[in-house]
Automatic annotation (TrEMBL):
Its EC number is 2.4.2.52. Keywords: ATP-binding, Glycosyltransferase, Nucleotide-binding, Transferase. PANTHER family: 2-(5''-TRIPHOSPHORIBOSYL)-3'-DEPHOSPHOCOENZYME-A SYNTHASE (PTHR30201:SF2), TRIPHOSPHORIBOSYL-DEPHOSPHO-COA SYNTHASE (PTHR30201). The keyword Hydrolase does not apply. It catalyses: 3'-dephospho-CoA + ATP = 2'-(5''-triphospho-alpha-D-ribosyl)-3'-dephospho-CoA + adenine. Pfam families: CitG. One of its GO terms (molecular function) is triphosphoribosyl-dephospho-CoA synthase activity. This is triphosphoribosyl-dephospho-CoA synthase. Gene3D superfamilies: Triphosphoribosyl-dephospho-CoA protein. One of its GO terms (biological process) is prosthetic group biosynthetic process. The keyword Isomerase does not apply.
Length: 284
């Protein structure tokens, strides 16, 4: 029989991978890979994104397993960083060197770890708080390479993926989760609710993917346009935004990662209320 720790790790990994797949399958999305086009990307496809997500199951499972019932600490930070880096390697092997989910491994990896610290019983607020604590321990084994994110965070003085996590995912707590819940309560279809959730992120996140490709001008453009489309009831015209992003080479990859992280938190929270048998039914 499986231990509680093994069951939770299996479930958390399934929910994490499901969230990644649901993010990429959401269509339309401006500038991002979806079921209709590959957005502002020449090297990514829907199939590659799904394959990449599926290779990450063991990474998330192992992160949950080593985190179960522990407290945030330097030791835990280093253990999950090592697992996260193995995950990144597997992702690059599966995609032939293309970056499909680097930011997502980071954000969702931390959230999986935090949820597992609480043995699946934490509230969303507790999960993001613990994730922030883990991310705030120094990454002593981080290779000293000049990643796009690092170059851009220094150049423009923004927090990027690291800052977002260290602060306890403020854009999820302030914008995307409230938008998801409000849109559902308002009676929007789940698809539209998720699209609005994504737009709420693009309108506020200092996305290093956008900054790296197009600087401040592109970031300002993306934020302004997303805020404008959020005021529209008819979201069908989102295809126009997709065309504008593609023509300017804008890809809000950081917001896409945070959308997947939002879906992860929403699902993990929903699973708290059901018993073990129902859990497996729900995540099948
Ligand atoms: C912190 C990470 C993301 C590296 O960050 P860095 O900015 O140097 O890298 P890079 O530019 O290659 O990737 C940044 C990624 O974050 C996403 N992103 C961009 N902006 C933002 C933002 N504002 N908020 C959240 N995510 C963002 C993008 O999609 C992008 O893919 C991460 O790869 C890392 O350090 N991993 C080590 C393994 C680890 O510690 N894991 C622990 C948990 S699994
Ligand atoms: N649906 C999606 N479409 C495109 N990118 C996504 C999607 N979902 C998540 N992302 C995120 O966007 C990032 C890819 O962005 P990008 O290709 O700009 O990064 P890069 O490879 O670091 O830089 P560049 O391609 O500009 O040289 C991935 O790390 C991934 O986490």
């Amino acid at each position: 029989m499986k231990s509680e720790m093994q069951s939770f790790s299996d479930i958390a990994a399934k929910v994490a991978v499901r969230s990644l797949i649901e993010e990429v399958e959401l269509t339309p999305k401006p500038g991002l890979v979806d079921q209709v086009n590959t957005g502002a990307h020449q090297d990514l496809t829907l199939q590659l994104m799904i394959k990449s997500a599926e290779t990450l199951t063991d990474t998330f499972k192992n992160i949950a397993f080593v985190s179960y019932g522990r407290n945030p600490s330097q030791a835990l930070r280093e253990e999950i960083a090592a697992i996260g880096r193995i995950g990144e390697r597997k992702m690059f092997e599966a995609t032939g060197g293309v970056n499909t989910h680097k930011g997502a491994i980071w954000a969702i990896g931390l959230l999986v770890s935090a949820a597992s610290i609480g043995k699946g019983r934490f509230t969303i607020k507790e999960i993001v708080k613990r994730a922030g604590e883990i991310a705030s321990f120094p990454d002593r084994h981080c290779p000293n390479t000049n990643t796009n994110g690092r170059i851009v965070t220094l150049k423009y003085g923004v927090g990027g993926a690291r800052g977002e996590a260290q602060q306890g995912f403020p854009h999820i707590m302030k914008f995307s989760l409230p938008m998801l819940y409000r849109s559902r309560a308002y009676g929007l279809t789940e698809e539209k609710a998720r699209l609005k959730t994504l737009l709420s992120l693009i309108a506020h996140v200092d996305d290093t993917c956008i900054l790296h490709r197009g600087g401040t001008e592109a970031l300002m453009f993306a934020k302004k346009k997303a805020a404008y489309f959020l005021t529209k009831d008819n979201l069908e015209c989102i295809n126009t935004l997709d065309e504008e992003f593609i023509s300017r080479n804008i890809s809000p990859g950081g917001s896409a990662d945070l959308l997947a992280a939002t879906l992860f938190l929403d699902k993990i929270h929903a699973l708290k209320a059901v018993d073990e048998v129902q859990k497996y039914e729900l995540i099948k």
